[in-house]
Amino acid sequence: MAFHNPPSKKPDAKPDDGGMGSLLRAEKLTQIAFILPAAVFIGWVLGVLLDKWLHQHWIYLVGIILGSVAGFIQIFRLVAASGKDT
């Protein structure tokens, strides 16, 4: 019986992560999909509460804008962090 050496692995080759890597990528995409709507909703709710507390009718718009800005900032941070991992 002849002995065959296993093929040498290249140093720059990525290991096959299988199903767990796919699940992690799907989780990151799901997280990105929920960040912006959740941030806008939280900003809107806080704006409505401030409207009722201060007897105003415009603060909810500021809450929506601040929530969307916070959501985009978090999305950019998440994408930048995932870019460093690859």
UniProtKB/TrEMBL annotation:
<keyword id="KW-0812">Transmembrane</keyword>
<feature type="transmembrane region" description="Helical">
    <location>
        <begin position="58"/>
        <end position="80"/>
    </location>
</feature>
<feature type="transmembrane region" description="Helical">
    <location>
        <begin position="29"/>
        <end position="46"/>
    </location>
</feature>
<protein>
    <submittedName>
        <fullName>AtpZ/AtpI family protein</fullName>
    </submittedName>
</protein>
<dbReference type="InterPro" id="IPR032820">
    <property type="entry name" value="ATPase_put"/>
</dbReference>
<keyword id="KW-1133">Transmembrane helix</keyword>
<dbReference type="Pfam" id="PF09527">
    <property type="entry name" value="ATPase_gene1"/>
</dbReference>
<keyword id="KW-0472">Membrane</keyword>
